[in-house]
Amino acid sequence: MRDYFDSYAVVAVLLLLGCGIVAGALAANRMLRPHRPTPEKLTTYECGVDPVGGDWAQSYVRYYVFAYLYVVFAVDAVFLFPWATVFSAPGYGLTTLGEMFVFLGFLAAGLAYAGKKGVLSWV
Amino acid sequence: MPDLLEIVVKLALVAAAFAVLPLLVGQAEHKVMAHMQGRLGPMYAGAFHGWAQLVADGVKFAQKESVVPRAADRTVFKLAPAVAIVPYLLVLVVVPVGPDGQVALDLGLGLFFALAVMGVGVIGAIMAGWASANKYSLLGGMRVAAQLMSYELPMVFAASSVAMAAGTLSLSGIVEEWRWWWLPWQAVGAVVFFVAGLAELRRPPFDMPVADSEIIFGPYTEYGGLRFALFLLAEYAGIVVLCALTTVLFLGGWKGPFLNAELGWLWTLLKVFVLAFVVIWLRVTYPRMREDQLQKLAWAYLVPLSLGQLALTGVLKVALA
């Protein structure tokens, strides 16, 4: 258990190191760069003309069905990982293989249903 | 404390690889693209074939003004490049380069960790798209999100196929189990993983989120100076990470025709650079895919193919056991 947390301590140290590298680069940048803001410079860029309408524009999220599908499938996929390490261990074999095909069958049926419903095509 | 010293040296090596390898890939892209298109590419900086071009770029970026648009969400806008780049550094820590502990951290859950952390990098681009308060950036950010959701799934399936074949999630463990006949056995998974990874990195031909002809530069439109450079660096770090993971999972990592123990790290590097060359090659070869074509490729081809690969892996593994 101690080793387990120790290895994640290394990850945490590297995370801090990474944040340090980025912060250091930006700090160096702060000392080297000029700072002369003008109203024109701070305008939202829209190909050179004045911005039209609001900044956060409304748009139709076309892929919200993909998002649902992804969440459903990804939750299933997470369970694959612990199973993948033991499924061929002695004493499992054919049973777990059968279970795998049940799992794949569910996923494939879901995908086929979604495809048939026409939600997989971006309109 | 020899252990502590070892960890410090290894982390320093990881940070050095993170600083140097993306630049090598970037310079290779300059030159390879140029020669494929009948040009010379950078020739001036550093005198010999423009080798110092990216160093010169870095010096230039470091002196540039940092402009945050008035309408932008300042905190998120400024934080986004860090979120985009740091995860790729974290993934490198679990990538083994050679046998017998030539890995910074042999995490038991290495594969799972790598996939999970790699996905975080995409959030940086989504943050940038949202915080810029620019219509084009927002559209780009939405496309990034759509692309992640479509391509993450086949990528995870292809990776778990390798985990099934090896019976472990440790990346070193996977390479140790690897045999040459895994190449044909896992070929479909390898292609699916690599293509899905390219899409997640938004590399051409999957660069719809930054399509310059319609949405300027997508989520990065409002960025300039060093923060823009960090996004670019994140893209090349992403290429290194994707190629390293593909090497370790599907191409046998440090295993070569001879001298695995002595030259293992060299085989790994060689495979990574060959794959990086393929990434550049694909950029030069294929035109950008349309958004609906992108989604169709993921859901209609890659997901079913990866499910097929899972079935094939399972059947053969049980038949061999």
What's the structural blueprint in terms of helices and strands?
The complex is a heterodimer of chains A (123) and B (321).
Chain A: H1 2-32, H2 64-86, H3 94-117
Chain B: H1 2-36, H2 53-62, H3 74-92, H4 110-131, H5 135-166, H6 171-177, H7 182-185, H8 187-200, H9 212-215, H10 225-250, H11 260-285, H12 291-320
Helix pairs in contact in B: 1-10, 1-11, 2-10, 3-4, 3-10, 4-5, 4-10, 5-6, 5-8, 5-12, 8-10, 8-12, 10-11
Question: What report would you give on this structure?
Answer:
The complex is a heterodimer of chains A (123) and B (321). Chain A has 123 residues and is mostly helical. Chain A has one domain: Methane Monooxygenase Hydroxylase, Chain G, domain 1 (Up-down Bundle), CATH 1.20.58. Chain A has helices at residues 2-32, 64-86, 94-117. Chain B is mainly alpha-helical and 321 residues long. Chain B has one domain. Helices cover 71% and strands 0% of the residues of chain B. Chain B contains twelve helices and no strands. The radius of gyration of chain B is 20 Å and the shape is globular. Chains A and B meet through helix 1, helix 2 and helix 3 of A and helix 1, helix 3, helix 4, helix 5 and helix 10 of B.
